[in-house]
Amino acid sequence: MGEFDLIQRYFTRPTPRAVLGVGDDCALLQPAPGMQLAISSDMLVEGRHFLSTVDPAALGHKALAVNLSDLAACGAQPRAFTLALALPRADAAWLAPFSQGLLALADLHGCELVGGDTTQGPLNICITVFGEVPPGQALLRSGAQVGDDLYVSGTLGDARLALEVFRGTQSLPEAAFVQARARLERPTPRVALGLALRGVATAAADVSDGLLGDLGHILRASHVAAVVDTSVAMQLIATCAHPSYANGLFDAEKQLAYVLAGGDDYELVFTAPPMARAAVQAASAAAHTPVTRIGQIEAPRTTAAVRLVDADGAPVQRQFAGFDHFA
Ligand code: ADP
Ligand code: MG
Questions:
Q1: Is the CB of 180 under 6 A from ligand 1?
Q2: What is the pLDDT of residues 16-25, one digit of tens each?
Q3: Are residues 223 and 129 in the same domain?
Q4: Per the domain annotation, does 286 fall within a domain?
Q5: How confident is the model at residue 1 (pLDDT cuts 50, 70, 90)?
Q6: Mean pLDDT, the chain, as a whole number?
Q7: What is the CA radius of gyration of the chain?
Q8: Is the CB of 115 under 6 A from ligand 1?
Q9: Does residue 72 sit within a domain?
Q10: Alpha-carbon gap, residue 44 to 210, rounded angstroms
């Protein structure tokens, strides 16, 4: 199978919305009149972001999911994406499930594959997504205000727990592992929630490198600080609600660390004023995505931007680092 057969067979699909898809030197997109384009790229590198043994269908899903998560964080409607792929070999047994996993998620979001590049090399997947947002309505990291509520969507920490099982530092009963592993390998980009939060949230980011790290980006961009209630946050790891967890499988310290700094969650962290609580609940309901209020935005200070407290408001002393590839 040559390069062009490969592109034709696995990555060429009808693109009813794009003006021109795969096959020419450029794709052509026609944004809806008056809309702004939201654009984001994310690269997945073997050994860095995934293990060589990962199911190719899950990898295809995740490669697009992490990109859609960025559009979600901006409140943008996904429209199209490009795929730049380095492959060790043209292996149909890998390409078929990879493209199925990728394109199934693309179809779910009406996001068309319009082009890309294919080359031989160590496995590397780079996707660029294009979304649309009305001018002035994109959710930014810079809009958080002192007094805003702080929220996070869905669940946190389960992907990291699954990763630690793969690394051999944790063990889980099979049923709980299956659930946690799905969060690691098939994250759900919160696109509908991001759209529903337009005009409601004052700031938003997606949680890819751990809650505290990504919250830190909002706080820096908005020149504010925050308090986080760890007693609420630590319940956000779904594996703890699994029946097999009842007798306690890992310690509370690790549970909190995975929730606050686990990474690979692809949830949204966002802020909204207290007067918008009903609107946040309505957005959550419309998007069929649970959200939890975990804290509040505070005035900037010279000490740590995030203050961790327990249920009684007493300080919780912990150090967590967000993920940094070069740290
Ligand atoms: P060029 O030589 O202009 O870079 P290519 O020969 O690399 O073009 O690609 C031919 C066509 O196939 C282009 O339309 C390109 O966008 C598309 N394409 C290449 N690789 C992929 C891929 N992995 N997924 C989707 N489209 C691809
Ligand atoms: Mg090319």
A1: no
A2: 999 999 989 9
A3: no
A4: yes
A5: confident
A6: 94
A7: 20
A8: yes
A9: yes
A10: 17
